[in-house]
Amino acid sequence: MKSKLLNTLLILFITATFAKETKAQTQNLNISFLLDLSDRIAPKKNPDFFQRDLGYIKSIETAFVNHVKGKKIMLLNDQMQVFFDPIPKIPNIDQLSQQLKVSFNPKTNKKDILSVDNIYTQTSSKIYLHTIKDNHYVGSDIWKFFKNNVQNYCIKDKQRNILVILTDGYMYHQNSKFLDKGKSAYITPAFIQSKKLTSSDYRAIMKKNNLGFISFPYNLKDLEIIVLGINPSKQNPYEEDVIKQYWTDWFTAMNVKKFHLITTDLSANLAPVLQKIISGK
Questions:
Q1: Is residue 99 part of a domain?
Q2: In a 3-state reduction of DSSP, which class is residue 180?
Q3: For 206-233, how does the pLDDT look when each residue is reduced to its tens digit (9 = 90+)?
Q4: Which of 5, 110, 185, 246 has a CB 3.0–4.6 Å from the CB of 143, allowing a cystine?
Q5: Number of domains within the chain
Q6: For this UniProt entry, which residues form the secretion signal (predicted)?
């Protein structure tokens, strides 16, 4: 009887310890941004889109800072960073990128936490405004970023890993125009039209022709993804559905357990949505 009681207590202790460690890991945030600096942010094309991007970044940064401020210093193990692919031709881009890489641990000074808001606001604005002023939009090779970097850059042990992709939902870069038995490394309005994905039976057409993004044999079960700013063409009533189906199938093929595909809207409208996602509530 005594032996059974000890075994029961031991099992309860192990279970409680495991649950505590699991909870602690989910409270450690590792947030990565992948920015699409294509002509979608050009004021002549979309007058307020770069401001929306900055607003989205602000909302997520605020949620991150609130999360960090709500933890005991001794429990801090949180970080946030920004990635580009390709690297934009902006003066001091290495320095600006480093400024957007923030990390907190038990040795963190509280002043460093409070400075994040100002740093992110100023530095992200510099990157967008310089891109617009220079009128040189390098775009974003999202497909290649996943192929080469997503596993190494965006996934850390014992952390809740979240990748935020700021893009219009289309995927295209001149260096990644690959096709493989119906699958592609890109999707554009013209491509969607050419594949006749313009009616309510788009799923059947996709299945019949094996359409979708070329995926990779990766297990991204420890990565959450937010695709933010989807802006479908108004010429096709099913454009948004097709775009979201492409992303859904791609993430599912790579075993992404949780993802959000969010259509563009005023940053003020999406702020509470984004903050709720980041807080995990």
A1: yes
A2: strand
A3: 999 999 999 999 999 999 999 999 999 9
A4: 185
A5: 1
A6: 1-19
Helix (H) or strand (E) holding 213: strand 212-213
**Structural domain boundaries, residue 81:** 29-279
C-beta of residue 254 within 8 angstroms of C-beta of residue 183: no
- Residue 147 placed within a domain: yes
Nearest to 79 by CA among 109, 57, 107, 101: 101
Contact, 267 vs 58, CB < 8 A?
Answer: yes
Write the CATH number for 151. Answer: 3.40.50
Residue 55 burial (CB count, 10 A): 18
Which residue bears the tokens 């309005």? 189
For strand 179-180 and strand 183-184, is the pairing parallel, antiparallel, or unpaired?
A: antiparallel
Q: How many CB atoms lie within 10 A of CB 123?
A: 17
- Extract the tokens encoding 115: 């400075």
Q: Report the range of poorest mean pLDDT among 20-29, 36-45, 175-184, 196-205.
A: 20-29
Phi-psi region of 263 (alpha: psi -120 to 50; beta: other; left: phi over 0): beta
Cα distances from 153 to residues 21, 43, 78, 163, 220, in angstroms, run 23, 31, 15, 10, 12
For the chain, how many residues are written?
281
Tell me which residue of 127, 246, 121 sits closest to 191, measured CA to CA. Answer: 246
Domain membership of residue 108 (yes or no) is yes
For residue 103, the surrounding DSSP H or E stretch is strand 102-104
On whether residue 51 sits in a domain, the answer given is yes
pLDDT digits (tens, 9 = 90+) for 139-185: 899 999 999 999 999 999 999 999 999 999 999 999 999 999 999 99
Chain position carrying tokens 């032996």: 3
